[in-house]
Amino acid sequence: MDIVDKGLLQQLVEGQISDIDVDEMRRMTKKDPERFWTYLDVLQEKVTWDNKILMRLNDHLYIVMNGSERIVKCDCGQEYGDYRVNWKLHADIQVRDTQDSMEKVYYPSAAAPDADWMEVREFYCPGCTAQLAVEIVPPGYPLIFESFPDLDRFYREMMGKPLADESPDWFKDKTTDFLAAL
Questions:
Q1: Which of 68, 63, 65 is nearest to 50 (CA)?
Q2: Would you list the domain boundaries of the chain?
Q3: Which of the four, 23, 101, 121, 163, has the lowest number of CB atoms within 10 Å?
């Protein structure tokens, strides 16, 4: 296999790809240079909105172009604002901080974190209620900004196609500025 076709990438995104095809893709001696662009096309076809997808963050969240801004957006259309601000600040959050609440979602219950030491934070989309992330952290620990990609560098150096709006200002965490303005 020299090129991964669009149908195979659709199966991969949908979780319906065969083990044989996965093995064949992994054994490719050279990565198909068009695979990322085909992957973005597959993702774009799955959503109902027109914003250009720049990168997928997880099963439901994307960094997209919204006019001249780069924002985080859920596949349902819910917008989370500037991608440089931790999107979790705009999500619905359920905190499990008692042993009883943790044991409701952990089986066997012995696998549950110790509520004296940890809390479980579940992040949900306010638009579609999809679960977007889970953190298991000590109580009071700040929200984890788990993915803040340098899009300009990725597109320029890895993909060989710089973004039209490339600027060093894009790769600056703006979460603190956002919180200070509240």
A1: 65
A2: 89-137
A3: 23
CA dihedral 86, 91, 94, 96 (to 10 degrees): -10
Q: Which residue has the tokens 């931790």?
A: 86
Q: pLDDT 10s digit of each residue in the chain, 182 long?
A: 678 888 988 998 999 999 998 888 888 877 778 889 999 999 999 999 999 999 999 999 999 999 999 999 999 999 999 999 999 999 999 999 999 999 999 989 899 999 999 999 999 999 999 999 999 999 999 999 999 999 999 999 999 999 999 999 999 999 999 999 99
Q: What kind and span of H or E run contains 120?
A: strand 119-124
48: closest CA among 31, 62, 32? 62
Q: What's the token pair of residue 13?
A: 């995104």
Helices (H), 35-146: 35-46, 99-103
CA–CA distance, 17 with 156 (Å, rounded to integer): 30
Burial 148-167 (b: 16+ CB within 10 A, else e): beebbeebeeeeeeebeeee
* Cβ–Cβ under 8 Å, residues 95 and 120: yes
Question: What is the Cα–Cα distance from 121 to 114, expressed in whole angstroms?
Answer: 14
